[in-house]
């Protein structure tokens, strides 16, 4: 992979990590309205997939979407403002953490109706196919959502209609408090692909290089042949389903193990230095810049203007009502 | 102007809009029909024949048959609408909304609001409502009120061929998700319809008949019964205004309130269920905005709070008709001050 792409990938993963670790702290002190679902530990999944997307490809995020948005190129400051319900947020404070959307970078709404993004992605792909613009749609789907009927309907339709959709299942171990080993019949989401006549691949989600290589092949095929595929990424999240989750369902030492043995940032850093692709100094520069960025935007957001109350009535309809 | 059925009027609207704008596509189960079969490719045109001939003119890239997969249809249509297409998605019977409701009320209806105005969702969901086909409890309901409940959706309930064409063209050109409810019994009713395209704006009721004694508000198939009842009552010297709102979200409340302020009496007729339905909704709006003008309690004419029955004698008893409306008008005249 080109050096510039490696630097971009590292910057994105580091930004997501710092953005989310700080969010964890801020949530505990009561500064964040509503609910947030943190992406810590899964950074290599979205960043690995997005490293293979072109500018006109679309990513569809989930409720655990801060990392998805940042990986697709959404501005961190305006994302943070949105999560804090501020006027300058990406969606003016109407979206919050769970529904952030930025059409300027083709990131379609983080979605709390789990699994629905799979069907919406079929429409995005249909529009792209109709225009013959070569674009691919990539819905991210949690492994819990994978058992929703709409996901299976979308997989069938994408195959019947030969749509350029790569269904990316993020298997992070738990659907809220229910283990995926128990909830998924057959145990393997990638294995479901064969039933819908599409290729299915599973890789370890803590390995940026494994994710990006698998994504490259499937996205390229979807683009060239207008055919769907399945990519399953396995990587447990480091935090709970939502912030405040006591995580009673996790065994002792599980998170310690994940942080010491399956941290995508450590694995990435060790590899790029061992292979001589990047230097420690280059990574340190990014670390410092990201640290500054996160400190600055978290300081700024607390003073940022709230939406005018009149905005309550805006944007219910596009045309007069 | 030619005399055509409501089915043909809707077909004309789709033909004209698909010719006019290549972003308009039709998605649904059997909207063309014939895929994977051994017979004709373009003979069916939907279970009620409304989309006949479209695939012949526009091809299967724009007239898209699907498996039986309502959630995926509605999700696909919403996603395509958000990214530059103008889909018409067919939900064969409104009764099936239970299997795809998330995509409509949680997704399509809310994109624009949730995303702070950064999305438009120009989606039309064509669906069928109404009893009278001996189709029993799961294919006969009039569930338009449920969609009316949801901010972000618009809901259309045409009562005749002329309105159906103008309202469908308006729906296709509208930038919001529109639920377009076609009453099955009305498909074969005929009316004078111009061959050229025309638009009927949403939120403008049609005053079908004017009279000073009682206001009757009726929707979809019930408009015909209301007109018939008004004619019967006129023979007895009772003059009714009949109002067809045509769209129930937005609702032209001003026209209804203005009329009630003149007549002082209101009968609301709807084929939807009586609880939390359009009859209740319109009655409550009028009670709030024209209470001082009312000379008698508002009367609602609806089916009973039961599923739609099968046996013809039971179904006929279930569906409100002109006799029920005459009775309600007479009751409101007998009551009050």
Would you give an account of this structure?
- The complex is a heterodimer of chains A (321) and B (337).
- Chain A is an alpha/beta fold and 321 residues long.
- Chain A has a single domain, classed as Rossmann fold, CATH 3.40.50.970.
- Chain A has eleven helices and eight strands.
- Chain A has helices at 3-28, 43-50, 66-72, 76-83, 116-131, 149-160, 180-183, 208-225, 254-261, 264-274, 280-301, and strands at 58-62, 107-111, 137-142, 166-171, 174-175, 178-179, 200-204, 229-234.
- With 337 residues, chain B is an alpha/beta fold.
- Helix content of chain B is 36%, strand content 18%.
- In chain B, helix 10 links the parallel strand 13 and strand 14.
- Chain B starts with a strand and ends with a helix.
- The mean pLDDT of chain B is 96.
- The interface between A and B is large, with 46 and 49 residues.
Entry keywords:
heterodimer, A: 321 residues, alpha/beta, Rossmann fold, B: 337 residues, 36% helix, 18% strand, globular
State the fourth-level CATH superfamily of chain A: Thiamin diphosphate (ThDP)-binding fold, Pyr/PP domains
Q: Spans of chain B of 5+ residues with little confidence (pLDDT < 50)? A: none
Biggest sheet: strand arrangement of chain B: 3-2-4-5-7-6-12
Total number of distinct structural domains of chain A: 1
Number of strands of chain B: 14
Structural class estimated from helices and strands of chain A: alpha/beta
């Amino acid at each position: 992979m080109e050096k510039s792409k490696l630097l971009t990938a590292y910057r994105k993963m580091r930004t997501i990590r710092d953005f989310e670790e700080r969010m964890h702290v801020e949530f505990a002190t009561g500064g964040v309205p509503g609910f947030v679902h943190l992406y810590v530990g899964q950074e290599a999944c979205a960043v690995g997939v997005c490293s293979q997307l072109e500018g006109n490809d679309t990513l569809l995020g989930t409720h655990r979407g801060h990392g998805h948005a940042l990986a697709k190129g959404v501005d961190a400051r305006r994302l943070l403002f949105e999560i804090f319900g501020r006027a300058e947020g990406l969606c003016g404070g109407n979206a919050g953490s769970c529904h952030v959307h930025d059409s300027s970078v083709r990131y379609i709404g983080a979605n709390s109706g789990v699994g629905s993004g799979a069907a919406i992605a079929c429409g995005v792909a249909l529009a792209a196919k109709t225009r013959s613009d070569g674009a691919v749609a990539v819905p991210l789907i949690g492994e819990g959502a994978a058992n929703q009927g709409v996901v299976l309907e979308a997989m069938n339709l994408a195959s019947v209609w030969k749509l350029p959709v790569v269904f990316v299942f993020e298997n992070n171990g738990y659907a809220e408090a229910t283990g995926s080993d128990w909830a998924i019949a057959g145990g393997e989401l990638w294995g479901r692909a064969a039933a819908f006549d599409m290729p299915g691949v599973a890789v370890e989600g803590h390995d940026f290089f494994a994710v990006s290589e698998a994504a490259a092949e499937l996205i390229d095929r979807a683009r060239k042949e207008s055919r769907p595929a399945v990519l399953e990424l396995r990587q447990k999240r480091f935090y709970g389903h939502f912030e405040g989750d006591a995580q009673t369902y996790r065994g002792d030492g599980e998170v310690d193990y994940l942080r010491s043995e399956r941290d995508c940032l450590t694995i990435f850093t060790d590899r790029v230095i061992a292979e001589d692709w990047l230097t420690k100094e280059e990574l340190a520069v990014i670390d410092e810049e990201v640290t500054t960025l996160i400190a600055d935007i978290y300081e700024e957001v607390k003073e940022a203007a709230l939406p005018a109350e009149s905005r309550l009535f805006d944007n219910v309809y596009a045309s007069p009502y | 102007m030619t005399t055509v059925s409501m089915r043909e009027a809707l077909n004309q609207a789709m033909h004209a809009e698909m010719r006019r704008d290549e972003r308009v596509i039709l998605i649904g189960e059997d909207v063309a029909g014939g895929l994977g079969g051994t017979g004709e490719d373009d003979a069916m045109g939907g279970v009620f024949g409304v989309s006949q001939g479209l695939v012949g003119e526009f091809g299967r890239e724009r007239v898209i048959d699907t498996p039986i997969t309502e959630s995926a249809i509605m999700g696909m249509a919403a996603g395509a609408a958000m990214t530059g297409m103008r889909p018409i998605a067919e939900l064969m019977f409104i009764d099936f909304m239970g299997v795809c409701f998330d995509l409509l009320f949680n997704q399509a209806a809310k994109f624009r609001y949730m995303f702070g105005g950064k999305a438009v969702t120009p989606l039309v969901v064509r669906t069928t409502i109404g009893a009278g086909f001996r189709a029993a409890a799961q294919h006969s309901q009039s569930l338009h009120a449920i969609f009316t409940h949801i901010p972000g959706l618009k809901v259309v309930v045409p009562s005749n061929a002329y309105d159906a064409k103008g309202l469908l063209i308006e729906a296709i050109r509208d930038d919001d998700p529109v639920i377009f409810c076609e009453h099955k019994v009305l498909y074969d009713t005929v009316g004078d319809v111009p061959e050229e395209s025309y638009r009927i704006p949403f939120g403008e009721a049609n005053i079908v008949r004017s009279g000073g004694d009682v206001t009757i508000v009726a929707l979809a198939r019930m408009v015909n019964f209301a007109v018939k009842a008004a004619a019967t009552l006129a023979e007895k010297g009772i003059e009714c205004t009949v109002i067809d709102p045509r769209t129930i979200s937005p609702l032209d409340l001003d026209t209804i309130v203005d009329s009630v302020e003149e007549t002082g009496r209101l009968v609301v007729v709807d084929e939807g269920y009586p609880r939390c339905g359009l009859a209740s909704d319109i009655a409550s709006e009028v009670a709030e905005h024209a209470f001082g003008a009312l000379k008698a309690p508002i009367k609602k004419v609806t089916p009973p709070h039961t599923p739609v029955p099968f046996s013809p004698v039971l179904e006929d008893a279930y569906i409100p008709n002109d006799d029920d409306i005459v009775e309600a008008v007479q009751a409101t005249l007998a009551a009050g001050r």
